[in-house]
Design a protein that fits this description.
It holds the Pfam family His_kinase. This is Sensor histidine kinase. GO terms for molecular function: ATP binding; phosphorelay sensor kinase activity. The protein has 14 helices and 18 strands. It is elongated and about 150 Å long. It has three domains: 285 residues, no CATH class; 54 residues; 175 residues, Histidine kinase-like ATPase, C-terminal domain (Heat Shock Protein 90, 2-Layer Sandwich), CATH 3.30.565.10. It is of the alpha+beta class. Helices cover 48% and strands 20% of the residues. A hairpin with an 8-residue loop joins β4 and β5. It has a six-stranded antiparallel sheet with strand order 3-2-1-6-5-4, covered by helices on one side. Strands 8-7-11-10-9 form a five-stranded antiparallel sheet.
Length: 600
């Protein structure tokens, strides 16, 4: 066997599998590179987003807190309000006392935000304006070289943000940006301008990734650079967004990846950018190594695959030949399990186990077929005894008529009719036949209990044209007299009702005023009725009837019990609308023999 040359089919199958494996390996390698790229890119963009968000929050806090430092001028002492109003409305030189009072006011304003470097008052009417540095004890004259004079002169909006300027003063930081606000109506004309440290916006630089050198972030407002982490304050060399931006843009001939976020007010943005080339080099840092590893693994896999190809093909041929033997119904044959390839011994064992179980199943099926034939013979034999009993009852009925006992003869006739219905009885009968059978059965029980019980039928006349599986009501009548009938009361009653539930279904109700059950007992009984019959000891009447209904009509049909207002119980039965003719036609099409509904 092992000296045979493996057939071309096995070789081609193996080569195809190896090729698919190699292709999948290459796909996996490119996926790994792709996800590595996106992971590193995500880290960079996440860092940029964190920088933009942190800077935006810091800058926004400064802008939003501006009014808290500005407005107390008009909300504190009356003297301060009067002084500021006089400052912006008059041209007179301030007295030393007014300068001290003004200095005190501006110091209190600067204490409201520790990021404030200086506060200045500017009025075009005054020949001299003043500035108070946060770290200085006295107020100073605003110099002609003050870098925001032009912006204050051209000021058009109530609040404006000015970009970074170098302020040459011993008591202030060199780099500051400023926010100016106007004065309320009636206070004259002018501005209060507050300078802030740019260093407060430099904290975001600690979030820069270590492996990216060209990343920068900056804040711009109204065409001015408020802060730039790379100290580039030439607005013409920077990207200026007109809304929230995330993507690649060309700035002065250089491609950059940019994230822009609105901040503070409608005209301010925080922009974080990185040279796109640096970004690509950073995210593809590991790509050459990954490619080398996967190419090496690919070559090694091809080499190993070709070396074991012959061994695999030979053992596959052994398994194939064994399957051919089993296919010829030689189910006692067992494949060898001493294969060298990993997994082949388990495959052989599974095939051997499968063939053994199949062989056993065939033997059991043959045995059960013999038992079924024995059961059919026993069923044919059993039909003799009911015939004998029926003939005997007919003889007794005639004897009673001969002796003038017509009442007893009538009861015997009903009993004989009931037994006769069991002999060769049909599975599916009309409602008329089922109701007639139930009345005969009731007559036997009423003969025993007399006037202690009454019964009533209330059925839709159109419903009588449809059919039902036989002996439904007989079982419910028997259940009532066993469990619900009270021999100590004269008004026992059982009522049978039937109506159309909808276009496809019929609902039957059997209602009594018997002993009844508690709510808990009803719940337990309904649960037991729905449980499958596991052995003959569980085969009580209601469960048996429910199983017959579900087997015949389907799992959505059956019966359930409810407690009624008279103290007894009501049995609700749901069945499908079907005439006897429809049933017979269905049986004819399916070529099913007449039999018990449980066989359906």
């Amino acid at each position: 066997m092992n000296n045979k040359k493996p057939d071309n089919h096995v070789n081609n199958l193996f080569l195809t599998s190896a090729s698919v494996f190699c292709i999948l390996l290459l796909i996996f390698s490119f996926l790994a590179i792709y996800f590595s790229y996106h992971d590193k890119k995500s880290r960079i963009t996440s860092s940029m987003e964190m920088i933009s968000t942190y800077t935006s929050q810091e800058y926004g806090n400064i802008v939003n807190n501006f009014w808290q430092a500005y407005m107390p001028v008009y909300e504190t002492m009356k003297e301060d309000s009067t002084l500021v109003k006089s400052y912006f409305a008059a041209e007179d030189e301030l007295t030393p006392q007014e300068k001290n009072q003004l200095s005190s006011l501006l110091k209190r304003m600067s204490l409201r935000d520790n990021r404030i470097t200086w506060i200045a008052l500017y009025s075009a009417l005054r020949p001299v304006n003043y500035i108070q540095y946060a770290n200085d004890t006295s107020i100073n004259t605003l110099p002609d070289s003050f870098p925001y004079i032009k912006e204050l002169t051209d000021k058009k909006q109530q609040m404006e943000v000015y970009g970074m300027r170098y302020l040459n003063a011993a008591s202030a930081g060199n780099e500051t940006f400023a926010i100016s606000g106007g004065v309320p109506f009636g206070f004259g004309k002018g501005s209060i301008i507050i300078g802030y440290k740019t260093s407060t916006l430099a904290q975001s630089a600690t979030l820069f990734p270590d492996n990216v050198k060209s990343m920068e972030y900056y804040v711009i407002s109204n065409g001015q650079v408020v802060y730039n982490s790379e100290e580039n304050y030439d607005i013409g060399s920077l990207y200026q967004p007109d809304g929230e931006t995330d993507g690649i843009h060309t700035v002065n001939g250089t491609r950059k990846y940019v994230q822009a976020l609105p901040s503070g007010n409608a005209s301010s943005y925080v922009v974080c950018s990185i040279n796109y080339g640096d970004m690509l080099r950073s995210v593809h840092k590991d790509t050459p190594l990954l490619l080398a590893v996967f190419i090496a693994f690919f070559g090694f896999s091809v080499f190993i695959g070709r070396s074991i190809q012959r061994q695999v093909a030979e053992e596959v041929a052994v398994i194939k030949e064994g399957l051919n033997i089993l296919a010829e119904n030689n189910l006692d044959y067992q494949l060898p399990t001493n294969f060298r390839q990993n997994g082949f011994p388990e495959i052989a064992q599974d095939i051997n186990m499968m063939s053994s179980r199949l062989n056993e199943s065939i033997k059991k099926a043959y045995y059960f077929e013999l038992k079924q034939k024995d059961a059919e013979m026993a069923e044919l034999q059993a039909t003799f005894n009911p015939h004998f009993l029926y003939n005997t009852l007919e003889m007794l009925r005639n004897k009673c008529y001969s002796n003038g006992d017509s009442q007893t003869a009538g009861l015997i006739a009903n009993l004989a009719s009931i037994f006769r219905s069991f002999i060769g009885a049909k599975t599916f009968v009309t409602f008329r036949e089922e109701l007639a059978f139930s009345k005969k059965y009731l007559s036997l029980l009423i003969a025993r209990y007399g006037d202690l019980v009454s019964f009533r039928y209330d059925f839709d006349s159109a419903l009588l044209n449809y059919g039902i599986i036989r002996n439904v009501f007989q079982l419910l009548i028997e259940n009532y007299f066993v469990h619900g009938f009270d021999a100590n009361r004269p008004d026992n009653e059982i009522e049978f009702m039937g109506t159309f539930l909808d276009e496809d279904n019929i609902q039957l109700l059997v209602k009594d005023n018997g002993y009844g059950m508690t709510e808990e007992e009803v719940v337990v009984l309904n649960q037991k009725i729905e449980e499958p019959i596991r052995h003959s000891r569980e085969n009580f009447g209601l469960k048996n009837l429910n199983q017959r209904l579900k087997l015949f009509y389907g799992p959505s049909y059956g019966l359930h019990i409810e407690k009624n207002e008279s103290g007894g119980i009501t049995v609700f039965i749901k069945i499908r609308k079907m005439t006897v003719e429809e049933y017979e036609e269905n049986r004819k099409q399916l070529r099913e023999p007449e039999g018990d509904p449980g066989s359906r």
